[in-house]
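To: structure desk
From: M.T.
Subject: fold request, one chain
Message: Could you run this one when you get a chance? Sequence is below, nothing fancy, just the single chain.
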Amino acid sequence: MSSLDILRGLVIVVMALDHVRDFVMTAAVQDPTADPTTGPLLFATRWITHFCAPTFVFLAGITLSIAALSGRRSFATLHRWHIGLLAAVFFIAIPGLAVSSRVLHLTLSGDRWWRFPCIAVASLPLFFSDELLIRRIGPRWKSEGVAVLTRILLVLFMITGTLTLNRESAFLLLILPLVAFFWIILWIAAGIVHRHTQSAMAAALFAALVQGWAFAALFVTI
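Reply: Done. Structure tokens follow.
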């Protein structure tokens, strides 16, 4: 656990350096990786930040999952995971590709399809811990309320971060409420998978794959 905390701390330091650069180098090119005159050190500190957010989310999910599995039979939460995989494939293939690609024009076209597996892998441990820690709260209305509250708070933190550190991307404020609504619907859908499988991993795998596809397609669109 301590090693994971150290890694998360290093990720935060790198992200802080990048945000400091945004404030200090106000007259320079906003993205140093797009400037051919950028030095190797500055280029590296900017380039590596592309991996900071998914790495931090992945490590946070791993830490929470380890804490949630302490003293429990871990294998009991991993069974029937293939049902979650099949449910995600069905959801992406039918409502996703058949409907969204025509109505909302959400597709994984171009050379940015790699976002799908990256987002799915990064978010899987967090969804898994979500199932272990929140889904088991009883009675059911309490777990539903905690799930909705955590997602609303996360979006509020994202809005605060956008207004504070990334004002040039203020258009994200229009998207974040839709993200909160998507997360709530995804929690409900993952709950259906969990009720049919009684497997935290099946529900988490379903949620991670569906979110990976939706976010990757959305990022390609915008």
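Reply (cont.): The chain has a mean pLDDT of 78. Let me know if you need anything else for the meeting.
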